[in-house]
């Protein structure tokens, strides 16, 4: 059975594809944000009339939820491999490979980057989320992100 296709920025994707979507903010300073998840499709708000792209994402607690992304804010869409799932003590966590751009070291997760560099995991995560440019002079990015 063929999955329905979704047209985004002139390219066709299949419902259920794992994608990385880069969006931009409207207010200055303009910042790029990335969203990752399984493509669900388009939804139009009956109130505002805006079209939203729906992604099924996995939260840090291992729960799934649907995230709506406004169509006009989408800058780029890329196909990606779903993240590796690690099961620990009955819970489910998603682990994503991290690269230190400063040293070139690759780590399987934020926790292992913390253990390998001695930098706090929360600081590494802040760099990955774009809240900080570096932590202790080290710059990090997710391995699957463009330009990493």
Describe, in plain words, how this protein is organized in 3D.
There is one protein chain. The chain has helices at residues 110-117, 121-128; strands at residues 5-8, 11-14, 18-24, 32-44, 51-58, 64-70, 74-79, 84-88, 91-95, 98-100, 106-107, 140-142. With 148 residues, it is mainly beta. It has two domains: 5-79, SH3 type barrels; 96-142, Arc Repressor Mutant, subunit A. The strands form four sheets. Strands 6-5-4-3-7 form a five-stranded antiparallel β-sheet, with no helix packed on it. The longest helix has 8 residues, at 110-117.
Tell me the β content. Answer: over 45%
The CATH topology annotation of the largest domain reads as SH3 type barrels
Q: How many beta-strand runs? A: 12
Helix/strand order, N-terminal first? EEEEEEEEEEEHHE
For the largest beta-sheet, the strand count, sense and barrel status come to:
5 strands, antiparallel
Lateral strand order in the biggest sheet: 6-5-4-3-7
Euclidean distance between termini CA atoms:
36 Å
Q: Which regions contain 5 or more consecutive residues with pLDDT less than 50? A: none
Tell me roughly what share of residues is in helical segments. Answer: 10-25%
**Structural class, from secondary structure content?**
mainly beta
Short description:
The protein has two helices and twelve strands. With 148 residues, the protein is mainly β.
What is the topological layout?
Elements: E1 5-8, E2 11-14, E3 18-24, E4 32-44, E5 51-58, E6 64-70, E7 74-79, E8 84-88, E9 91-95, E10 98-100, E11 106-107, H1 110-117, H2 121-128, E12 140-142
